[in-house]
Fold:
Amino acid sequence: MGPAHAACALLSLAPLLVLGVPPIWTQPEQVHLSYPGESGSMVVTWTTFNKTESYVEYSLMGGRLFEMTAKGEASLFVDSGKEKRKMFIHRVILTGLKPAATYVYHCGSAEGWSDIFFFTALNNSTSFSPRFALYGDLGNENPQSLARLQKETQQGMYDVILHIGDFAYDMHEDNARIGDEFMRQIQSIAAYVPYMTCPGNHEATYNFSNYRNRFSMPGNTESLWYSWNLGSAHIISLSTEVYFYLEFGLELLFKQYEWLMKDLEEANKPENRAVRPWIITMGHRPMYCSDDDQDDCTTFDSYVRRGRNDTKPSAPGLEDLFYLYGVDVELWAHEHTYERLWPVYGDKVSSSPHSCIYSLCSGSVTEMCVFLFKVFNGSKEQPYLNPKAPVHIITGSAGCRERTDRFNPNPKEWSAFRSTDYGYTRMQVVNATHLYLEQVSDDQYGKVIDSIWVVKEKHGYSSWF
Ligand SMILES: *[C@@H]1O[C@H](CO)[C@@H](O)[C@H](O)[C@H]1NC(C)=O
Ligand SMILES: *[C@@H]1O[C@H](CO)[C@@H](O)[C@H](O)[C@H]1NC(C)=O
Ligand SMILES: *[C@@H]1O[C@H](CO)[C@@H](O)[C@H](O)[C@H]1NC(C)=O
Ligand SMILES: *[C@@H]1O[C@H](CO)[C@@H](O)[C@H](O)[C@H]1NC(C)=O
Ligand SMILES: *[C@@H]1O[C@H](CO)[C@@H](O)[C@H](O)[C@H]1NC(C)=O
Ligand SMILES: *[C@@H]1O[C@H](CO)[C@@H](O)[C@H](O)[C@H]1NC(C)=O
Ligand SMILES: *[C@@H]1O[C@H](CO)[C@@H](O)[C@H](O)[C@H]1NC(C)=O
Ligand SMILES: [Fe+2]
Structure:
């Protein structure tokens, strides 16, 4: 064999020589928390690529480290991409936590433990004043607000994070490696405070399977819609995507609608609304927006707002439902901008006698058509003091590869404040009457560029009159 042939023989062996055996993936990663809705509990969720058992070892901060252990389960998630990548999603529910106490924990198994993290069990008092950061549309690439959110969360500025849809851009891409990397990126937020989510359009691929498998929200809808309570607030998370991806099942739209009605009915029982007067919704695609991109929210006949009549049976929208049950604040994203609205209903800032409001409750219809002219602002000087319609906030500018959107130059009269800066929103539900919202601009190094107090001496449908 000449030297050339010898080299060829070596080369053809090379793949075998360098490949060796693949690594063992038993090390926990992508650690994140969520609140399962029961006082004194928390769910820890993480990923390994090889199967291991699922344990969380934890203890009170300052106590003997890891003196308690909780066991959970792992479920196999097979991504639907070409490689059919497999991963194990581990879920452990911690119960019996002392409200407002701080715990340290790690998660994993005898085959490997995560880093050590800490969290504060949510205070379960109805007079607790929770502080939220909220945003949508945060991606793996160009996640402009991420570092500021990581730092502020670790400084203890927030009790809960609300991510209002559109993660990673997109979790399924590169055989779900984008999802993995995004979940690693948010670990330094989500391993410290509950990270509460709803699905957005960027999760739709393979019927939302990356979203449904990776998160662990309350209820048994694979994190698609659910509600929970904190302080004086009842918070409802929903999927606006059921109005758009009919191929995954029109029945989901009706299931969610029925569930929303029941949930709102329950939340409005006098004994419940008395202790949790604030009803706050979060969903990805807004009913209203004044961007120039022709999205659903730019049209009068927004599917989310007005429903669809091209389905059989036709599908009810959400605006009337939320109005009739006295929803106070509606949080949205999807538009890569921030926009605050004056109290709005029926695409208007006031109602006239011609715009009778139809009601689910028989008897109240006539009453609702009687009034003459009514401005939804609480008053001209203080529009958010006892507003006569829900308050909408659109906050989808956390940062992603699609950059920010643009506004149309002539917004409708309900548009109160707009910004195309990257950023996110802070919210504090201070007490039964006072709720505070402010917008942080990351472009302006954390400057607060907008803020309002929503003050309501009364809540519920009757507070509109
Ligand atoms: C670990 O996971 C990889 C990737 O799914 C797989 O190919 C390998 O067989 C697994 N190893 C063990 C020991 O389970
Ligand atoms: C709050 O937590 C304490 C301690 O676990 C418990 O005794 C109490 O019943 C809880 N209150 C509510 C309203 O859940
Ligand atoms: C929970 O919050 C309430 C209201 O702020 C406060 O009075 C109470 O002390 C807190 N609970 C604990 C255990 O810190
Ligand atoms: C999509 O997922 C939802 C939630 O699991 C399920 O109810 C629905 O049947 C699925 N749709 C299709 C077409 O598989
Ligand atoms: C159906 O909805 C469209 C807008 O989405 C509207 O233009 C049309 O008038 C509606 N048709 C009926 C019969 O209500
Ligand atoms: C609502 O209040 C704002 C702020 O005072 C004001 O600019 C706007 O014109 C008011 N809208 C109506 C319909 O009065
Ligand atoms: C609610 O919070 C506001 C703002 O901090 C405060 O002015 C008001 O007195 C509080 N109300 C009650 C009943 O504590
Ligand atoms: Fe979106």
Q: What stands out?
A: The domain at 131-464 is CATH 3.60.21.10 (Purple Acid Phosphatase; chain A, domain 2). The pocket of 2-acetamido-2-deoxy-beta-D-glucopyranose (ligand 4) is lined by residues 207, 222, 248-249, 252 (CB under 6 Å). DSSP finds ten helices and 28 strands in the chain.
